[in-house]
Specification:
By secondary structure, the protein is α/β, with parallel strands linked by helices. Helices cover 31% and strands 26% of the residues. The chain has 2 domains: 2-126 and 270-329, Quinone Oxidoreductase, Chain A, domain 1 (Alpha-Beta Complex), CATH 3.90.180; 129-263, NAD(P)-binding Rossmann-like Domain (Rossmann fold, 3-Layer(aba) Sandwich), CATH 3.40.50. The protein is built from 11 helices and 15 strands.
Amino acid sequence: MKAIVMTATGSPDVLQVQDIPEPQIAKPTHIKVKLAAAGVNPVDTKIRRNGLFYDQPLPAVLGCDGAGTVVETGHAASRFKPGDKVWFCHGGLGREQGNYAEYNVLDGRWGALMPNSLSFAEAAALPLVLITAWGGLYDRGGLQEGQTVLIHAGAGGVGHVAIQLAKLKGARVITTVGNQEKADFVKALGADEVILYSRNDVVSSVLSLTGGKGADLVFDTVGSAVFKESISATAHFGRIITLLGLAELDLTEARMRNLLIGFELMLTPMLRDLDEARDKHVQILQQCALWIDKDLLKPHIGQRFSLQQAAAAHSLIEAGHTTGKLVLSIPEF
């Protein structure tokens, strides 16, 4: 089958189209999926630059997010049958094959039926960002109806679904973006207040919008500098959840505010083989599918690429400031 393989660590040029063996069902619980689309996430570019999560030899196929049609099942994979349309977040970290390919095989336990109203490309755009936003806002962040949440980079892959999930919870959403076009985009998603960080001081703006209190929850999708700045924009006894590792920071003000600080790394259940946590990921996809089919939650694809254009998609992500998600369409060869 055709696949995009990571041949070495380095620039996007290390991603090459190759013919590799088609994966086969090896366990009774496996399902084989003919992939129609694969999501492209920042973690893919980090693995390509820095190396696999596992001590495995290259080449490797990247891509955690996939959507396609079940073509074969093991005898114990009772949840699915050939012809079912599925979406999932599985593989692409260096141990199991990823989804930049024509086919993949995974345990049926980790797949879910696609929302009926989505195309394959739209479905492939969502699993990782939905699970991340859910974990950061609901599980780690404890977001409650009536609270105010500050979501950084609201027009991004995680940010644009985080806004929608926060509104579904009944929260007031303040978000940051870089330009007016993105401000219009996040407003259409339901954001209540938008701060253009290129024109306005974020902390002062948040304090002004909250009567000096600050946000009950801050969701940082950017990194250390934004996290540090956000401490003063968080209400006393509030929470900050970040997706990124933090450089050494002075947390004196965070301590004075009695803040809860949390991390959201949705890859942990895959990396640590935490099956119950992976079950929760599937439950998140199942619940989000219901919302999507009720038109309460919508993906935004910023740009679509062919499978052969994976390197271009990586370059665009690394250039920064993309809107929504990037997706690889996988045609028949």
